[in-house]
Amino acid sequence: MYRRILVPLEHSPTDAVILEHVRALATLCGASLLLMHVADGWAARNATQLRLRESEEMQQDRDYLEARCADLRGVGLDAECLLAGGDPATEIVAAAEREACDLIAMGVHGHRGLQDVIYGNTANSVRHRAMIPVLMVRDPAAATRRTPMGTKAVPRG
Prior knowledge:
The chain is of the alpha/beta class. The chain is built from six helices and five strands; from the N terminus they run βαβααβαβααβ.
């Protein structure tokens, strides 16, 4: 069914939900996994044009991706890592095409309305732009992770 699955990660607790799901799916299908993170800070968005060195944040993101790949390889899966910089939705869709992926599998928070405006909605943008299937797996615990102001936090770590 699927041969190569792109799995965008955001370096948050939601990643565990999608990784658990794609681990089973990749095993069932015999698919390889391409884990991706899109750093979208100023340095990441301008690193190529300005020939900037990799920022500390990007190095932490790379280390995180490599650790997740090592976890998947440890259970016998074929997994690679890709760290990109720029607009997340644009980079995810471009990577899926460039890397010949036949599925994008994303963890989502389940924001609605105003929260989508405030936080953006990468998953929705990917869904509209991608020419391959997009699987979205909602993090059921995301609704319980809130800041003091009552909005959903996007923790790093």
